[in-house]
Amino acid sequence: MLSLLRPDPFTLLLVATVALASFLPVYGAGIPIFSAITTAAIALLFFLHGARLSRDAVIAGLVHWRLHLTVLAATFILFPVLGLAINGALAGLINPMLAAGLLYLCLLPSTVQSSIAFTSIAGGNVAAAVCSASASNLLGVFLTPLLVALFMNLKGGVSWGAVGGIVGQILVPFVLGQLLRPWVGAFVGRHKQLVNVVDRGSILLVVFLAFSEAVVHGLWTSLSIDDFVVLFLIDAALLALVLVATTYGSRLLGFNRADEIAIVFCGSKKTLASGLPMASVLFSPQTVGIIVLPLMLFHQIQLMVCAVLARRYARRAPTEGELEAAASPR
């Protein structure tokens, strides 16, 4: 249990990146250069995701439309409702930008990689998880900016230019990867480590750029230890509420065990890989660093908790004898 709760190497790299940005932030003429590098890394990441995603798995998962609607409802209805409720309850009690970050977290799509990985470890419906998580991310390119415009007080709202920037960074490279999959898919499949390096590297670049600009504009002078403690407790409570809702909701809707696992792990996640690039487009450079703090903390909490939950599901998987006994007439 303790080994599962211990921070993974990537989390330590995130902390180190924040520390580096705090002491040696990029600023001035270096910002546009670093921004261009970061944008290119993000585009490469989603190109590789598109090239790696099996069309057979997507087609196999598409038939579970009730499952996908349930996951999308958890992601884009349940989470936003909880985010609005938390935001209203905390008005005036925490830093307003952290409150905005909590709401932004609730408006994001699900993750892809970790949702699929945990579903697989737990013995769930992997094909459906692939389709559901991917659909959530693709729809999120349009739904997240729309929800941000509806529920967050942005001056001037969300422009078409911002939506176009998100589409250009995420959706276009993903579709291009899918189109070129017959030629590059095998190479990407043989070099999974390449995807992992680009995945983590692009996130670290976005974090470094966001925190550099936030630090230059006085990020750490506006936050206290109490802010971080309260933020951790809220993130943990939010995840717990959604895990309970997706677990018992899927059972009430009559889903089997494999589908329940896919719903729980796809419906309770929020993406760091898409959330950070979207934030850099949707929000001003001065505020991005503090707005993504709740997301970064939630990301680590969800990984630790879902790792424990996936192992628990796996340990409780029914044996072949139990399945045969359940299927035999009484």
From TrEMBL:
A Pfam family reported for this protein in Swiss-Prot or TrEMBL: SBF_like
InterPro entries xref list: Na+/solute_symporter_sf, Put_Na-Bile_cotransptr
Keyword terms, alphabetized: Membrane, Transmembrane, Transmembrane helix
Gene3D superfamilies the UniProt entry points to: 1.20.1530.20
Keyword Ubl conjugation assigned: no
An annotated GO cellular component: plasma membrane
Transmembrane region(s): 31-48, 69-91, 97-119, 126-152, 158-180, 201-222, 228-249, 261-283, 289-310
Protein name: Bile acid:sodium symporter
